[in-house]
Specification:
The chain starts with a strand and ends with a helix. A hairpin with a 2-residue loop joins β11 and β12. It has three domains: 143 residues, FAD/NAD(P)-binding domain (3-Layer(bba) Sandwich), CATH 3.50.50.60; 118 residues, Alpha-Beta Complex (Polyamine Oxidase, Chain A, domain 2), CATH 3.90.660; 97 residues, Guanine Nucleotide Dissociation Inhibitor, domain 1, CATH 1.10.405.10. Strands 1, 2, 10, 11, 12, 13, 14 and 22 form an eight-stranded mixed β-sheet that branches. With 452 residues, it is of the alpha/beta class. It is globular and about 65 Å long. 34% of the residues lie in helices and 23% in strands. The model has no long low-confidence stretch (mean pLDDT 97). Pfam families: Amino_oxidase. Keywords: Oxidoreductase. GO terms for molecular function: oxidoreductase activity. It comes from Leifsonia tongyongensis. This is FAD-dependent oxidoreductase.
């Protein structure tokens, strides 16, 4: 086993870990980044599948994501707008298709009024929430002890209004059933984007993409680290004391003054600690779990939906694919649709054979776009739940009561051990913007500690 010494060892070469490493090196500290996978990027992964470039992981850039935007500018990466010309599609509980423009779905007037009222109520609550300290809200404990689905029931008896509002948090973001997380967790999700209105506005939250793929961010950050990133090195043991740490993989041992765990919280317990992490950390991590979503990629010879005046944007809380978008690559003559199957619906289709799952998913897409959607030239399912070093998507969230009880300690360092990832972000929570933001904050704290 080879042994090296550095100021800081960083476990995980996703956007957050690589941001930490980059900032530390700028400050003159030495680093080693140990990554379990054979690639960098974590939940950012741009790959070629059957001749099509697919964003298997995260991909979108929102106007408020200044941490990500400044990184893109520094790396010289260009963006382009998501295609959104034409009409959107909505399917109601009876399977009736409506074409519409604007942000509010074409529902009966009473339901529309209820949806608008719910958004206004949520925006008012979100305005009171500090995304970096949601547990500090005066009603945090109460809001964390009621599920989001139950909270919605206390606000309206209109089922379609509840279904649509619930879809944006449950299916589209936390990828858990709305009965499985609290109202406080839902408010944090909205506060991380600035407002609930932002979260339900696809033209805001899914604004731009990066030419060539978002994984270029970690790839280029890793290139600039001049060999300090080591792939295929899952950390098995972390020995620590107040004076430093020793991180051991199967072939490398790194001694350092500090360690940064830049991995999803559910993976923290995959490492053996000597001595064990404190009781508070052990308990905290048991109350976090990942969501579950299938990201479906369907590539066609042409973006045929545009010929019918459709934007490609489609929604229905009653469909297997609850949301879908035109995801055509920059400068590509072919057309790509991306759709999402989340939480319990994803459980259901993974009980099927791969062929039957594909058939049902494409059938769901055809309910939006017609028969042509049944025949893609490339089809691929991003299944992060089966990824050994991710185990779900898009991020970890607390169970009922967990956010108010443990949230304040989510990033609290343990001796020389620090924590950094998008799952722990306030603003930018579960997005690469949050990963970068937390990475910068973690690096700044370590630099201050190193100079103390």
């Amino acid at each position: 086993m080879s042994a090296i010494e550095r100021d800081v060892v960083i476990i995980g070469a996703g956007a957050s870990g690589l941001t930490v490493a980059t900032e530390l090196k700028k400050a003159g500290l030495t680093v080693a980044v140990l990554e379990a996978r054979d690639r960098v990027g974590g939940r950012l992964w741009t790959d070629d599948v059957d001749g099509a470039m697919l964003e298997i992981g995260g991909q979108w850039v929102s106007p408020d994501q200044d941490a990500l935007k400044s990184t893109l500018a520094e790396l010289g990466l260009e963006t382009y707008p998501r295609y959104r010309e034409g009409e959107n599609i909505y399917l109601n509980a009876d399977g009736e298709l409506s074409r519409f423009e604007g942000e509010i779905f074409p529902v009966p007037p009473k339901t529309e009024a209820e949806i608008v009222t719910l958004i206004e109520k949520l925006d008012a609550l979100v305005a009171e929430i500090d995304p970096d300290r949601p547990w500090a809200h005066p009603l945090a404990k109460d809001l964390d002890e009621i599920s989001f689905s139950r909270w919605l029931e206390t606000q309206t008896d209109d089922q379609e209004a509840r279904d649509n509002i619930g879809m944006f948090i449950a299916g589209a973001m936390l990828t858990k059933p709305a009965h499985a997380f609290s109202a406080l967790q839902a408010l944090l999700m909205a506060a991380s984007a600035g407002s609930f209105s932002n979260l339900v506005d696809a033209d805001f939250i899914l604004d731009e993409r990066v030419v060539g793929g978002l994984q270029q961010v970690p790839l280029m950050l890793a290139e600039r680290l001049d060999g300090d990133v080591r792939l295929g090195q899952p950390v098995r043991r972390l020995r620590w004391h107040e004076g430093g740490v020793t991180a051991a993989t199967d072939s490398i041992e790194v001694k350092a003054r500090f360690a940064v765990l830049a991995v999803p919280p559910i993976l923290i317990s995959r490492i053996s600690y000597e001595p064990p992490l404190p009781r508070r950390q052990q308990q905290l991590h048991q109350h976090l779990s990942m969501g579950f979503v299938i990201k479906v990629h369907a590539v066609y010879e042409t973006p045929f939906w545009r010929e019918s005046g459709l934007s490609g944007t489609a929604f229905s809380p009653y469909e297997l694919v609850h949301e879908a978008y035109d995801n055509t690559n920059f400068g590509d003559s072919r057309g790509t649709l991306v759709g999402f199957v989340a939480d319990e619906a994803a459980d259901g289709v993974f009980a099927l054979s791969a062929e039957e799952r594909k058939r049902r998913i494409l059938t769901s897409l055809s309910h939006y776009y017609g028969e042509k959607a049944l025949e893609p030239v490339v089809y691929y399912e991003s299944d992060w739940g089966s990824e050994e070093w991710t185990r779900g998507a898009y991020a970890a969230s607390f169970d009922m009561g967990g956010l108010a009880r443990y949230g304040a300690d989510l990033r609290t360092p343990v001796g020389p051990i620090w924590f950094s990832c998008s799952d722990m972000a306030g603003k930018g929570y579960q997005h690469v913007d949050g990963a970068i933001r937390v990475g910068r904050e973690t690096a700044a704290a370590i630099i201050a500690a190193a100079r103390a």
